[in-house]
Amino acid sequence: MINSILDNALKNAKPLNINKDSKLIFFSDLHKGDNSYADDFTHNMEIYKYAIQEYYQKNYTYIELGDGIELWENYSFEPIYKAHKSVFELLKLFYQENRLYMIWGNHDMIFRDPLTVEKMLYQIFTPKNIIEKEKLFNLEFHESIVLQIENTTKKILLIHGHQADWFNYKFWKFSRFFVRYFWMPLQKWFEVKDPTSPAKNYKNLIKVERKLKGWMIKNNNQMVIAGHTHRPRFPDPGELPYFNDGSCVHPNSIIGIEIKNLEISLVKWHTSIDDKNQSNITKTVLEGPKSLDLYL
Q: Distance between CA 42 and CA 249 in Å, rounded?
């Protein structure tokens, strides 16, 4: 079952050509909520805004690998938009310049339906004319994207990663029900962790990674960049090329993956204290840069 799901994700992936001039930033698992106690994104919002402003100014393409919006704990998009309007306005800048690509994950899986996306946007952004309507409602969420390196046959599969998490892929509505009506109240009152989430259940995390890596081996060590588990992964050359961009809900930091000059890096944006005892937002390169050729 898992192999079939991943096979289809690769087969039906949206192609995106890249070359030495391409600059890409990957983030996932923001879980933007309504700014309530359950909104894990709120405490990192300023770090995230600072980072994507930097990427926008430096002409990066922004690729979100799923779970950008928390629609298991929240019933609708509107309160999330109101809570994080400034973030959505920044993403809109990327979109207007065709530098925005979105993948849906299990927590925003409703976006796999284009009509749902259109209805959601219409509630927030009422278009003033036909041209604005066509531009706005062309926003697409994909299950998967394939990066194709120009003038080569080399490709990189981008997915959220829940394709290797059978329960959270096939029965995501069941998981959403329990998170929304059972685990979230328990988390609030008794700090009980959600056992359906690989980010909060180590055994489930290992199981998901093992299944995904098994599929990669069967597919000629296909390079994959994913999210879902919240655990950053950056293999050494010669190891199985499974990369994970971590999440944007780590304590006081966000972690992502950059590709620039056909080199890949794992980066962390976080707060730091300078010599004058002032707090600043800075970027630390955790791994890399490494040439993509070492993994393809």
A: 9
Domain boundaries, the chain: 2-294
Q: Give 164's DSSP letter.
A: G
Q: For tokens 């998009």, what's the residue?
A: 77
Output the pTM of the full model: 0.87
* Helix, strand, coil % over all residues of the chain, rounded to 5: 40, 25, 35
Q: Round to whole Å and give the CA distance between 88 and 139.
A: 13
Q: What three-state secondary structure class fits 24?
A: strand
Q: Tens place of pLDDT for every residue, the chain, 296 residues?
A: 889 999 999 999 999 999 999 999 999 999 998 888 778 899 999 999 999 999 999 999 999 999 999 887 777 888 888 899 999 989 989 988 999 999 999 988 888 888 877 777 666 666 566 555 555 556 789 999 999 999 999 999 999 999 888 666 665 555 655 565 455 555 555 454 544 455 555 677 788 899 999 999 999 999 999 999 999 999 999 999 999 999 999 989 999 999 999 999 999 999 987 777 788 999 999 999 999 999 99
Residue 42, Cβ density class (10 Å: 0-12 exposed, 13-18 middle, ≥19 buried): middle
Q: What is the largest CA-CA distance in the chain?
A: 56
Q: Please give the CATH topology (third level) of the domain spanning 2-294.
A: Purple Acid Phosphatase; chain A, domain 2 (3.60.21)
Distance of CA 33 to the CA centre of its chain: 15
Order of all β-strands in the sheet with 100-103 = 141-142, 100-103, 61-65, 23-27, 253-260, 263-273, 279-291
